[in-house]
Amino acid sequence: MSTTLQKPTAVERRWYVIDAAGKPLGRTATTVANLLRGKNKATFTPNVDCGDHVIVINCKDAILTGRKLDQKTYYHHSAYLSGLKAVKAREMMATRPERAMYLAVKGMLPANVLGRKALTRLHAYAGADHKNAAQKPEVYEG
User: Fold this and answer.
1) Which DSSP category does 134 fall into?
2) What CATH code is assigned to 14-64+93-129?
3) pLDDT score at 1
């Protein structure tokens, strides 16, 4: 049995819209990460960037199960001495829910050039309105 490898120039990218309202944040992020990598395609090649563009709407309505709203903490560092910043998940979902979705998807992508390139195709919005209607995205149910 032979394996067909896709050329980087032959990649056809599609646009998908995923509604995160009422769905767990992590489950939605898993679906988004698979679409960004292109793992849903029959022509998936691990060393080629063959993923699609994904628009995530209603990030503010995504739910965190269990006690994650109170226990989960997001950390980042300002690169200065004692510059470690900590933000609880409840505050993150209240102020910047699209950032929480971005970080969840980022953690599910590989930490290399392919993962960073795939992350540029993620478009997350807190509300139901998005500015990518000109690309004629399809609603993804999966």
Assistant:
1) G
2) 3.90.1180.10
3) 63
Rounded Cα distance between 50 and 10, Å, is 9
State both tokens at 135: 């690309």
Tell me the three-class secondary structure of 19-63, residue by residue.
ECCCCEHHHHHHHHHHHHHCCCCCCCCCCCCCCCEEEEECHHHCE
Contact 32, 51 (CB under 8 A): no
72-108 residue pLDDT tens: 999 999 999 999 999 999 999 999 999 999 999 999 9
Amino acid identity at 112 = N
Give the up-direction half-sphere exposure of residue 51: CA atoms within 13 A in the CB hemisphere: 23
Say how many residues make up the chain: 142
Q: Please choose, from the candidates 93, 75, 87, 71, the residue with its C-alpha nearest in 3D space to the C-alpha of residue 25.
A: 93
